[in-house]
Amino acid sequence: MASTVATNLNTLGRTTFIKNPSFKATPLNAYAKVLSKFCIIPSIEGPLKVVQQIEQQGAQTVLETVGLKKKGYAVKSHTLVKHNLATGQTGQVTAQDVSDAEYLAPVTIGSPGQTMNLQFDSGSSDLWVFSSEMPADQQQGVQSAGNSIFDPSKSSTFQRTHGTWSITYGDGSGASGNCGTDNINIGGITIKNQIIELADTASSQFLSGSESGLCGLAFPPLNTVKPTRAQTPMVNMISQSDIPKDSELFTCYFSGQSGNSYFTTGYIDHDACGGATPAYSPVDSSQGFWEVKSETACINGKAVSRSGNTAIVDTGTSLCLLEDSLLAALYGALPGAKIDHSVQGWVYPTDTPITSIPKLEIAVGSNYFTIEPEYFGFADLGNGYTYGSCQSRGSNFPFDILGDRFLCNIYAIFDQGKCQFGAVQRTSSGATTSGRPVDSGTESSTAQLVH
Length: 451
Known about the structure:
- The protein is mainly β.
- The chain has a domain at 275-448: Acid Proteases (Cathepsin D, subunit A, domain 1, Beta Barrel), CATH 2.40.70.10.
- The protein contains seven helices and 33 strands.
- Strands 1, 13, 14, 15, 29, 30 and 31 form a seven-stranded antiparallel sheet that branches. Strands 6-7-12-8-11-10 form a six-stranded mixed barrel.
- A hairpin with a 4-residue loop joins strand 29 and strand 30 (420-426).
């Protein structure tokens, strides 16, 4: 099912992503961020661990919002802490231990407009911003980091509502506050009466970051507003007919280091497709995520069966998180690769020839998409090894997470109207394809992973 490629883009939205100049590809920080976001329990010993396994009470986590219990996973009130491998002592995960957002996008709120640089996150569903309702010392911290604060008293279109919101992450960090409605503008499209979640308090992990808040692009079940969940900007764009009926979608083009990254609403960029037809996969949105089937992978031409496996597509995560058995097969195909407990993940020799990097194809629905060699490594550790972009999804998390290092290899189409995810493969040579059909055959027999 293909969505229309728009020919008249005058009334449709395009936003250029800002490559965060403060972002550093620091392995443990990137891993800490995703462990914290999804309350993941690490399966590899290292400087991060989880303590306090008791039933969740109080503020909601992202996953508790939908009562996630898939494959035996139940949300607990556990806390991610730093763990000294030598002494066994633990300590708090601080702002310096968690990565900033890698990509930011300007969103204008209110009348007259106040511009906020937000992280566009397809792994959550809250639109929250730093606000003038925060304590003075927290506002000072936000401004010291170079970020903006939304002041609802300066907007003639802001209306107070009775809603409240609260998000708590796995490291104990969080933000909360009250709600109101206002007009917002994303890429030239104005959305009226959007619920804005105003932070009246936020933990230090947020205050020193490079973003002024977050724009959630997942489905409404993940939203934390009470007593009634807020609709996301995409849902409101659709209900207000801000985008064409046959293109109720947004797309993302992450370009790695080149800086030409962008986000569109209401149309598919024909140039990004390069003549290739997007391959679509049904999305299971019941738990709020962009969740697709991913029941096989292919390593150097050898298919690996992963019956029943699914993945979520998350623009708010830098790494790709996969189950441990698949990682063992992947890095087992790379000479010199090993688990380095000091960075709690897989590393491989930095001087590995590009021709020796395993070809990893990940199934999204019925098509494979390849992680190109230039995105196989996440960061040079400076000790002769490179930290891989694919790392462990832990012992309790039921999905793979396809983050930015996967998305840099495709043009991604999040079709909310048809509840499907589309992709076009982008290759190192600049060519584009529809991906490789899973049933197109492999170079050797299919293997079954041992769990």
